[in-house]
Amino acid sequence: MRVLEILNKINSKVIYLLVSIVVLIPLLMTLPVEVIPDDNAKIVFDSLSEILKSENSTDNNLIVEDREDSPNYAYDRPGGSIDKSSGSKKILLSFDYGPSTRPEIGPMTYAIMKQILKSGNEIHTMALWDTGLPMIAETKKKVLKDLNMNERDAKIYDFGFKTGGEAVIKGMLSDISEAFPGSKGKVDVHNLCDYDFVISFSAGSPGSKEWVQFGGDQSKSSCGKKVKVSTGVTAVQVTELLPYVGEDDDAQLTGIIQGATGAASYEALVGEPGKAHQRMTSQSYVHILIILLIMIGNLSYFMLDKRKD
């Protein structure tokens, strides 16, 4: 009877302590967890991989393993090395977020930048938010360190930050050097249509919507080619962007990486579990704890109520 009364009236401080412990353990320790990639993240991965691999018939970095119980996963081939061939594919990454949303968006920027660098193709970075500049520097530094690459050898070209949102994107459709004068003579691109893929890492406006409306949607009429656009966003933006998402060549958004779950999905697809996996593990264990506490509270309440009758 006494035990039931204690379980029915667990102090809130005890609950907070339990939640803190369950959150911290996966962040401090590497716990094995399998993440099944969602379909939208897989669209982004498949589309980008196809573009990066189209330069060479063989890929020394990734292999695809077919599994009956889940979608295709990509794993690092043991002993795989960076493809240092002269890839001509150009991928534009727009860092349209800041430190406050780094836990959600940071892991996806890292995974994608690393994937492109390993393929030997070019990365061009820019920011529509001034807070995107330190995010570019941080991501680049971490990727280069993990790949043991010198910045001089990596084909990363930084354009910097430009205020103006949609006006900047529209300007890039005609002449990138006007929007970013520092790019002139540095890269072999004239306008937005020279890119094989554009990915906006977005925490709001200007961001994904502007890239769809003023970049991808207007590219065909402006420069004769439909620019393929995708995005990685915070979870709160997903519902308003899903109507744009598709997987065909005419899609306004070629897939979408949806918050922390999408970032964990992308990490699974490239075969490198990282920060997003850790955070999803913490979240999963907290959900289990909350369900158990609800069950304990309800069972103890009904048992006590029955004894009173």
Low-confidence stretches: 57-80
Share in β-strands: 5-15%
| Strand line-up across the major sheet | 5-4-3-6-7-10
Structural class: alpha/beta
Number of helices: 11
> Helical residue percent?
40-55%
Overall number of structural domains: 2
N-to-C order of helices and strands = HHHEEEHEHEHHEHEHEEEHH
Instruction: Please state the overall shape, judged from the principal axes of the Cα atoms.
Output: elongated
CATH hierarchy, class of the largest domain: Alpha Beta
Query: What is the total tally of β strands?
Result: 10
Spatial gap, N to C terminus? 14 Å
Q: Return the CATH topology of the largest domain.
A: Rossmann fold
Rg from Cα: 23 Å
Major beta sheet, specifics? 6 strands, parallel
CATH architecture grouping of the largest domain: 3-Layer(aba) Sandwich
Round the mean pLDDT to the nearest integer and report it: 83
